[in-house]
Amino acid sequence: MTARAPSDLAPERVEAALALAGAPLGRPLSVVEATGSTSDDARAAARGASPVATGAAFVAETQTAGRGRMGHAWHSPPGENLYVSFVLRPGLAASDLPPLALAAGLAVVDALAPRVARERLGIKWPNDVWIGDRKVAGVLVEALLAGSRVDAVVVGVGVNVRTTRFPPDLEARATSLALEGASDLDRAALLAALARALADRVDRFVAEGVAALARKVAPLDVLRGRSVTLDGARGVADGIDERGRLRVRGDDGVARTYAAGEVTLAGALDGG
Fold it and tell me: DSSP assignment of the chain, as one string?
């Protein structure tokens, strides 16, 4: 019987990749074959009797209950993609947390850019990364509160790496690095690049504020100028404002801003 080749997410390979990239996040590291959700694992560890340190990473080969925003399920086939959640303690107030998803989206773009031409990458407010008009990655940011204080933040990231076939409800709007001809499909290296980029983007967000973050996201905004539906209302996306909110000019001509919400391209379905 031929022995199975070790996974590119074997802990020793991930540790080596983190060291090579000089990534300040990713330790302590937990890698498991299967879990319900890496974000649930991170939340439990952050709230445990001995809370994990900031930067801890939780990785799984597959998730049985992976989720995105608004309770959407995340397609998590085994051995194909990257599912990772980080525990962070950025020292932000709860009211300042929503734009953190945009900072994480920028980090995903940074990590993917050496593998796919950067000009093909975009951010769909508030938490998705696209290649062209298809979703390749999603971000989920969840705050852990101690009273009114933010004790920790869990940043979950799912990246479609090797998947070449998606379920029927996703195949028209999801893609992967493999389908897009990426130059490198090594998941350990991708995780390390993401860990380094996430640390950098979060540090900049904390130091520079949301207005500077919004300016960096603007060139990547895939919604601007396009007809969208947001929480049942139709309009044209008009960019991201200095507070990280989506501007939408409604069919009535009135411009409104949204700090959160379910946004889709008009006539399309959101996917993940």
Answer: -PPPPPPTT-HHHHHHHHHHHT-SS--SEEEEEEES-HHHHHHHHHTSSSPPPTT-EEEEEEESS-B-GGG-B----TTTSEEEEEEE-----GGG-TTHHHHHHHHHHHHHTTTS-GGGEEEETTTEEEETTEEEEEEEEEEEEETTEEEEEEEEEEE--S-----TTTTTTB--TTTTT-S---HHHHHHHHHHHHHHHHHHHHHH-HHHHHHHHGGGBSSTTSEEEETTEEEEEEEE-TTSPEEEEETTS-EEEESS--EEETT-----
